[in-house]
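quick one, two chains, predict together pls
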Amino acid sequence: MKKIFLIVFLIPIIICGCQNDKEINNLAIVNKIGIDIENNKYKVTIQVIDINKSNDDSQENLSKSITYSALGNNISEALNNINLKSPKSLYLGHLELLIVSEEVAQNKMDKISDYFLRNSNVSKNFTMLVSKTKTEDILKVLENDNSFPTGNILGSVENSSNSDGTSSNIKFIKFMQDLLSEGKNPILKVISKNDKDKLTIDDIAIFKNKKLITFLDGKYNIAYNFITDNIKSTNINYKCSDKNYIGVNVTKSNTNIKSIIKDNEPIIYLDVDINAQIEEVNCSKEEDNISKIRSEVEKEVKKMIDDVIDETKKDINSDIFGFGENIYQNHLSFWKSIKNDWLDKYYPNLKVKTDVEVKLDNQGSILETVR
Amino acid sequence: MNTKLDKSIDKIIEKVNNITGKSPDVTIKKIEISNTSMATIYIETISDSEQINNFILKTVEKEIIYDKKITSKNILDVLFNSIAGASMKKINTYEDLIYYLFNGFAIVIMNNTKEAIAVETRRNLSRGINEATTEAIVRGPKDGFTENFILNLGLIRRRIKDPKLWVNEINVGKRSITKIGVVYIKDIAEESLVNEVIEKIKSINIDAIIDSGYLRELIEDDKKSNFPTLMSTERPDRASQALLEGKVIVIVDNTPFVLIIPTFLVDYFHTPEDYYQKSSNMTFIRIIRFIAFFISIITPAYYVAVTTHNYSSIPTGLLLNFATQRQGVPFPGFIEALIMMITFEILKESDIRLPSAAGSAVSILGGLVLGDAAVSAGIVSPIMVIVISITAISSLVFSSVDVVSAIRTWRILFLFAAAFFGIYGIVLLGIYFLIKLCSIKSFGKPFCFPFAPFNFNEQKDAVLRLPKNKLTKRNPLTAKKNLIRYVPKRIDDE
């Protein structure tokens, strides 16, 4: 009995072999990767966090990064070529940002994803961005970005998607899910560099059939987040009179998508429930009316949502909201019959019925108004 | 084998001298009275000569010298009846004579009688009752056991004045003849357990029992495991609490450490103080103790695993922090941890053995030189100093030296597992550790009770400490009769 016990415990120890043990100070922790195409080869640019201890123990030194780049026929070859240049071995387990150039996103998205999906030592939870300019240039700007440990740019993506819904922090794993799922097309945010070496994240890159097809203006992002139920909080302002606005703060938003098949035509019902509170009222007393504010906000949100759906229907024809996915999940046999014509025939004519309901939790009542 | 006493006291004195080798403390006082002669024999170092004066010599003077009626025939009977000794025995063999002599009795012998009287004149050799030094508590009784068997028994009796508190006295050790008391409450404790303990102690054949540690090693079931399966305590209140749970207490003469049989793992997480303070507060402290237990076993191993194998299991910020601090450290993390752990153990050991006057020197050397200077010299990373400190401090939550030692052994084993196989190794060894722990038996009782085997009712007083009106029953594994401990007063009774 004791021998069996010993053997059971020895087997996993013997067969697992010596794992890849390396002290952390001998690792080059890759933080950001950019992928371009140059001379029909991939040009991979990586940014490694410099962990060399300086004599004075100030925190500033922690945020230094070193940039390497190399060419290769595929991602792993390029990374191997970088490894030859770097004094430490590359470690991608803490990758935080992957930027692909427009050219890569248009043609090679499925090919480069394979490396990141297949390799067990690579983190799957990094943010993805598309760049209209060369990614190498953008990473050069980020090299001087001294916030620690995530770059400024990542922080701003995260912040704007969490606090006002004007952006979306799309992680690699989410992107791959959308890319591979039936009836949904992924989006990515676009990073661009202006003349003064400032980086902005604004536009939305829209994918169709695993390829980048076009860009959508960044103003549609809030509506996109409303439909995909990703709003954590945001602000909505509407004009109440000539130059005056009323602002409400959305504290909670819940979206339900329902699909119904009627006469062989799919109809999508969008139910958006919003909890909001009044933040600022600049209008005259007649406009300061709870039920009126409610209906106006409802109208405003409905308009935003309808606008972005119309925009994707017009000539993009990409189902970025996952309406097809909803039909696939609820009406499988119907989906099988329309699957091939979904984006070309059905989506442009899809009926979407939006219903927005706003609850004003905190009405922001004050005894005497200033006006 | 019993040799009868001789008639002549000169012969007896000669034989006693032969047996004891004329030790200077064996005092023999010969007195000639009217028509016969008598002698008192006692050992000066363990007998009280003032008591001998008061009890024996004065009586002899009063009763015999002035009373002419007494003949040499009945002189011993007269003495036996008139000596005001607390404990007296008539003896007629040399074996008894030697036994009582070395237990602090004074022996009175008389010519032509073939008999002797043993009078208890034991000198009080013990120190007074002091505070228990190894198990400090904040709120609660401060007294601790001493080296005196009778005093220790008295400390328990003072707490439990139940006539059912029975004591079984056994003498063990051919040379030491150490008094060992098996204490239990007759109508709570399991009879078979009591018998087992007594049988085990009786069957010991050893020359001397110097401390209860000797006894523990000899009667322990699981001699291989490094977890102490019998708890030793210095606190009478803890011993009394154990008695009320139906456990058996073993008091050994000449040591302030009393054994509790059987002992469960959770007992080491409990202190007597848990029952003296508010239950909710003590529950929190108990949870802290369990956390400290795991911290002190696993922390160095986890740190090594994370810095050499499983870098992806910690946040990026922390990884960078570790990596930066490890810059320029010449040793691998595993060796670094081993160096620091051994250094700490050396420091701790020297601090215990050192006379207290030199203690501060050790703490200065240890704290400043080894901690601070080693870091600035780049031999160890600052984070390693933190890891080893938190580990060491956590293990010191346990008052029992035995548990601290057991934790240390497993900590090093876990460190090896982590160095070679990372978190995978920690999990693997963790499973082995749990199996090993759960297979330990303390006098036939599962060591991990009430977790394995699981007992829902006993969870009230394991990790948690519920209020006393919820703890109405004794531990069913140890207590067999009179299970109800407390009957809460109902409002509708009034």
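Residues 149-263 of chain B form one domain.
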